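Schema walkthrough. Field components (list of strings):
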Amino acid sequence: MDATGILQILLYVALIVALTPLAGGIMARLYEGKLTFLSWIERPIYRLCGTSAEREQHWTGYALSLLAFNLVGALAVYGLQRLQFWLPLNPGGMAAVPADLAFNTAVSFTTNTNWQAYGGETSMSYLTQMAGLSVQNFVSAATGMAVAVVLIRGFARQSARSVGNFTVDLTRTVLYLLLPICVVGALALVWLGVPQNLSPYIEATTLEGGKQIIAQGPVASQMMIKHLGTNGGGFFNANAAHPYENPSAVVNLIHMVAIFVLGAGLTNTFGRMVGDTRQGWAILAAMGLLFLAGVGAASWADAAGNPALAAIGVDQMTSPWQAGGNMEGKEVRFGIALSALFATITTAASCGAVIAMHDSLMPLAGLVPMVNMMLGEVVVGGVGAGLYGMLVFVILSVFIAGLMVGRTPEYVGKKIEAREMKLAVLVILVFPIGILGLGALALLTGPEAIAAPGPHGLSQLLYAYTSATANNGSAFAGFGANTVLHNTLLGLAMLLGRFMVIVPTLAIAGALAAKKAVPTSSGTLPTHGWLFVGLLVSVVLVVGGLTFFPVIALGPVVEHLSLAAGTLF
Amino acid sequence: MWTHLRSALVLVVIMTALTGLAYPLAVTGLAAMVFPWQAGGSLIEKDGHVVGSALIGQKFDNPAYFHGRPSAAGDGYDAASSGGSNLAPSSRKLVDDVAARVAAARQANPDEKGGVPADLVTTSASGLDPHITPAAAAYQVKRVAAARHVQVEEVRQLLAQHTEGRELGLLGEPRVNVLKLNLVLDARWPLRGQGD
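Field assembly_structure (string):
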């Protein structure tokens, strides 16, 4: 990769760092209830839902409201898919989606995963895409934000019984944050070339006289929320690699910024709400270190190109006339640097959109997205989900530090005790259970879905179960996931990875909110310095590394070593 | 629990109306008013017919046209079924496929020695990549010039004029839009049997 590639990566990092305090400040005001200019829309919504902005909930009530909302939402998406043939806005004449696929898709979109076992332009009507999938893009993102805010309130409040009101948090997130950004952003995308229409597919007569049917649709409106909400579900099968979803590098930059801006901003919101912005910056620094390591590894591995292709006369050298490198499954306008950057961003966050086919990445470049997800997507992460995931790791880190110095661990003024630790460990165990447990079950019962022979086949299955458990949604797309078995098992992995994390997190928040603050003393471990950042990064890496190293060694590492030795499968 | 479910149902209905219908329909309406060409898919018309989209690649086999990348979308450049090959870098099938394309590219461009530019023999992520690299275009210049009976240097100049640099001088990669370039070729040196 050349200097321009590195410059593009640095520009992106600088943009995110610059936007973090801005987004963080707006969100802090929003969740502290200081933004009120839309209260005339809010009030009737709350009245219809039988609540009000002033009525707060205990964490258990909050959790019940959240689960009920997600259940109803999933049923709505399921119903729309099953009935789309008889419903309006279906110019492509899409048939009803089969039950197992509809279940998988409904779970996938409500859990903010957006795993797609279907191709958008070949199976979903415009109505399903808009009133089903797009809606969940908004509200599943808002759900994640709400949980993060509740955990922040847990740290910020003292001797409190309540943690907020789910209906209010969700509505405010959508009204003040997601919708306004999306309306402006979507129009900017259309200006830059992304289509937005409800036309039937266009029939073109090509220059050589052939026939080309070009799929259309309300693409721009879905693109904006799919990235801002770290959803990742493509309008088209090729996702953000499709030139309609992502026609240029400028559009691509908007997509990439949208993926990280709210997640990074929330670290700042956290700092502001607990009264010490340095705490937020320390968390962002830990995320940043892990992120840069990922981008570096992925772009290095892919820029080198494929030795098996170099051997048969393919020119993969970088020059002013071509980006070079491993171009299988890549788009010319993005080249290697942007593809590696996007692959790292989309899996660091729980987005899962792709601009290059991850299945065709070089083995070690494909390993980076996988590791990002295995670490629990705590590098910025899904909107909300990244922050609460990282705060669980923070609890683990201060606990380990507490053991080393022999004091009760504390974090931002709250004692971390047995109850919080047990819940944190429960959250961390979800990943090995989903990825390794369900993955092993799938390997035994449904290996025929694997398309690639050799070690890459294991990587395909491993990637699928990692992506589902981590609620990411990207894939090694050669994996034939659209079977009754995998639709069901992956659906379970997504539910596990979402709600078995959210419920314990809400419980931690409830327990913390009830505590009194302890004053800082000379024995308190400072959690805003580089020492703590280093400790946090190590804990994230050790927990992930020890858990998943064996299976990684059998998949991508073996493939890399075989390819270097000239073995093909 | 019933109160939770009732208020969840109401909230889902409200959010569907707001984010699922009002939002996309409002954006669709505004986009059609302000940016009708882009909103409609950036379609290119010639003699009253749609010949394609400026953003979507299409299949070229005629030696007088610049060729795009190999495509894994449907039977090739199927713009209603996008996608990549999803073959692993260690896949024997990938290496065999690429080897066949290398041989075909060398046969079609006998004047070119040396390695074939990577993008010309690998499938894109979408299967609809509208671009090739300047290297892949330069590789085809002599063939196109010969097929159109014009000077190589003239085609090379035309190519240079239609090579797009990095966006804003920094973002993305230099590239050539194959459909647009071929349209310019046809306008400048019409193929036999083509009107003007």
